[in-house]
Prior knowledge:
The protein is an alpha/beta fold and 427 residues long.
Amino acid sequence: MEISENFLFFIWRYRLLNNVCQTCVGGEKLEILQPGLLNTHAGPDFTEARLLIDGRRWAGNIEIHTKSSDWLLHRHHVDHAYESVILHVVYENDLMVTNSIGSRMPTLIVKDLFPEELFENYEKMLASPGDFPCKSQIKSVEPIVINSFLSRVIVERLEQKTAEVLAKVEVLKGNWYDTFYFFLARNFGFKVNSLPFELLANILPLHLLNKHSDSSRQVEALVFGQAGFLENASLDGEYAELLKKEYQFLKLKYGLKPMEVSVWKFLRMRPASFPTVRLAQFAALHAQSNQLFAKMLKAEDLKTVSALFANLSVNPYWDTHYHFKKSAPETQAQLGKKSIENILINTVCVFLFAYGKYTAQAHLIDRALNFLEKIPAEQNSIVNQYVEVGLKIDSAFVSQSLLQLNKYYCAKKKCLNCGIGIKILRR
């Protein structure tokens, strides 16, 4: 058997050794009172452990390796941080090791101290066919176990996104309005055009849109002009020519430089999702909703915050156009229900959570989670893998949790770090 350190962490953390009382390499009697807390940062693997060694009580840290010689390989013997280690737990003892002050490390060999079928079950799980390791077994896990772990990973997901938001807040010198504008713009790209929308947000500052928010024509000219769509010599319709003329004036006034229009992607997209249509919606949103970040924070219910993105005053030109080249059959230029839900999930809820953490306003964090519980679940290939095995996926709270679970646990086969995988293995 080729045992990994992660598996040994699992054995130690959940006290799955065969006997309560063990014997160390030097013959010392060992009793594990508390295995300690798994350390996910630098330093020993477990902290705050409690042991009895030959009747003497010890408190400190635990270090775990597949081979005892790894202690030297990782240079713990010269690292003062490891002087607090009270026990070295190994699968194989191939070398006697000491700490940085030359003291011999009490060592426990666990090679024959856990049920062999435990590791066999783990290997079978990793090797099992399917989209994720426990696909054939997850339905047998109690819903309370699954829901409990999903509640943990949704917070993990939101905290990861919060870190990204706070990094941008720092770059923008604490300006939450500009930060919200940047992430909202990226969201309007709906993955395919998220990068072009980011570039647009970088060269079209929010304060400039706010300055002209009393004129939808000027806001539209700034958005389409900076996006590079008004540089074309020939545009279809009087509206397009008026925008071009307006932009030339604003471009000169503010010393603006437009993007290269070639960065926008149209290929293999439904016309209603063309970047030109999204830009029209983006312009309409900022023309009618000044101080959007503040309004989002004040909206206490999902219906109110959803209304900020619905019934936008998109110029009628976009009811008969998908781009500036020629007219098209009449269409609906409003943001669709699914698009609004996408923005609520990926921008609004993230910012409620992030701002709540930043300002220590717990009600904003609770509101973000509450909104996710009320928004319908997303439908995509990853979520569908879990639908196929019969999991109940009835909200964005669950679908977002599953996206996090799949990316950081299932895809990486980190079953030993997953509450669901651990439940299956311990059983």
